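This part of the workshop introduces the protein records we will be handling. An example says more than a description, so a record of this kind follows:
>
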Amino acid sequence: TGGDTSKLSAFYSDTVLFAETGAPTLRGIAKIRVATAGVFTCCRYLESRVRPEITELSGRRVFQFGTYRDVIQPAGQSPITFHGRFSAILDRDSANAWRVTCLVVIRDSSVPSLSTR
């Protein structure tokens, strides 16, 4: 998304619930926008990878579980690599687009990166 909160928030429903290790639970797209704007102000995403391990479809809902890896560089610091797991629920909206309605992110580790690849 290149640090664009509008592009990022397009993936979420208006009533999204977002929970991440070490952070308050966010409810609603407005809170997602504020939180991501803060992250994009202080940090640069160098890499973001998601590896789904389970994807189950039931009508207009998808459940997904998997792992992620993010490499983030805070301003004036060395990059940090984050590894963890996620669980997501996506629903089809009225325009028939998939939107994240619930996302739980469990950070397993964060370590200084020696290389950004």
In short: The first strand starts at residue 12 and ends at 20. Residues 29-42 form the longest helix (14 residues). Strands lie at 12-20, 26-27, 43-58, 61-74, 80-92, 98-112. The helical segments are 5-9, 29-42.
